[in-house]
Amino acid sequence: MSAFGKLVLIAVVGSAAGWVGLAAGGKGWTPAMLTDVAQTQLTALLGRRADAMPAEIRSAMGPIIYYRHPDGLAEWSAVPTDTVDGKAFLPVLASEDVSFDPEAPNPLEAKIGERTVLYYRHPMGLPDTSPVPKQDSMGMDYLPVFADEAKDAGSVTVSPGKLQRTGVRTSVAVLKPMAMTVRAPGIVALDERRVSVISLRADAFIEEVEDVTTGSIVEAGEPLAMLYSPDIVSAAAQYVSDLRSGEGRVEGSRQRLANLGVPVSVIDKIAADRRAPVQISLMAPRSGVVLERMAVEGMMSEAGETLFRIADTSVVWVFADVPESALMGLADGNAATITFPGLPGETFSGLIDKIYPEVDMQTRTARVRIDLPNTEGRLLVNMFADVALATGDGAPVVQVPETSVIDTGDRQVVIRDMGEGKFAPQDVVVGRQASGMVEIREGISEGDRVVTTSTFLIDAESNLNAALAALASPEASE
Asked: Where is the CzcB-like C-terminal circularly permuted SH3-like domain (predicted)?
């Protein structure tokens, strides 16, 4: 080799070594990689095939576009900087960044025969295609459309790096009963079946009233008042006369007293004493609380006039106003959990006894009635309540997290994870929602994997791919 040739060779080797040194400092390459790097640089400068370069070098091309945290934290910088503990941020080259765009062919990697190019589309998305490579008026290369891309234009392929950077997370559709709870305001009311009104069936004078007032608790059979009724006294005298005479009208006389509302115990006492009483005792027909007392000593009470109103409060009703949209999963017998602001820290359990067949026109709510034991009498009428109603029939349904469903108003979409970084939108029909989950009635099955975060980003990219494919079809070429 001549002296001039040796001089040229030394210059080439020096340039390669300098380039490798700079790259090693910026990229943190190990000494074991320096031999391959130097060889690659030499082969590139001497005109050898570029595909002989190591993969680490071929991937590290392009300008530095930003700097990332050396420990992989979500911190980036546009200029060189250090962490708080003195570590230098690592540079990220243009070729190392990932995006949703189809990966452009690497000029150093000639993959011939592996993928079939159908046509070339305009780089700006215009409806202009070409069967052969060409450039537009601004010198931009037309982009190739491959056969496998055209078959699934709405799908998106995302590299692992992009998946990690954008925070894409997935979840599996599960088949299980949907645990749904409906919350509604409620109020305590009396059980209508346990309220009694005490009145007379004949005109009478109230001779005496027992020490019973509104709010008093009485027992069944307890005397409430003493009264004198000419009709009752006359019927009692007739009954006594028939008993003494032994005639066959005794049963009729006894029935007349019963029709006038005389208690059976009083009639039996008349039959035993063979004497008609002047005063008749008015008894409580049931145990409970006196809600109203209208009886006053000395008053004249006409037949049918209310003297007392008594309610049994051992069981009360709780009325809950449930929104119209939440009625679908409710049924008689469903469990209900109730709390009261007036009884903090306590929880009561009951069952739905009745769902009223009417929706309020103003509030668009339906009334649900719940039976609630009240043996201690602490639940008072008109107390406010917070009601939680369990809904559903227990049948398993396919469900996914709420965040995986994109609702555009006229359609609902989920992004399916097809594997190997490929995602595709899927129209679904949704049902009930509860506890952060959504029922899927059509579209996906148990075990399908769907995206739960970054769904809008992937959906927008898939729609863009589909639109470009429709615009850049081969029929649109000039």
From this structure: 398-458
**Burial group, residue 456, by CB count within 10 angstroms (0-12, 13-18, 19+):** exposed
Residue 51 and residue 429: Cα distance in Å, rounded? 50
Residue 326 is given by DSSP the state G
Torsion angle, CA of 446/451/453/454, rounded to 10 degrees? -160
The pLDDT confidence band at residue 62, using thresholds 50, 70 and 90, is low
Residue carrying structure tokens 């234009």: 153
Structure tokens at 466: 């589909």
Confidence of residue 50 (pLDDT cuts 50, 70, 90): very low
* pLDDT value of residue 423: 80
User: CA 117 to CA 142: how far, in whole Å?
Assistant: 12
d(CA 329, CA 432): 9
Task: Record the pTM.
Answer: 0.53
Residue 296 tokens read as 């006053």
CA distances to 291, 312, 321 from 370, in Å:
22, 16, 11
- Distance between CA 460 and CA 466 in Å, rounded? 10
Please state the rounded mean pLDDT for residues 209-237. Answer: 92
CA distances to 99, 154, 315 from 472, in Å: 21, 14, 74
Q: Give the three-class secondary structure for 251.
A: helix
Beta strands in 129-279, from DSSP E residues, in sequence order:
129-130, 143-146, 156-157, 170-172, 174-177, 180-190, 195-199, 204-209, 217-218, 223-228
- List, in sequence order, the alpha helices (H) in 178-319: 230-245, 250-259, 264-273
Q: 23-27, 178-182, 232-236: which has the minimum mean pLDDT?
A: 23-27
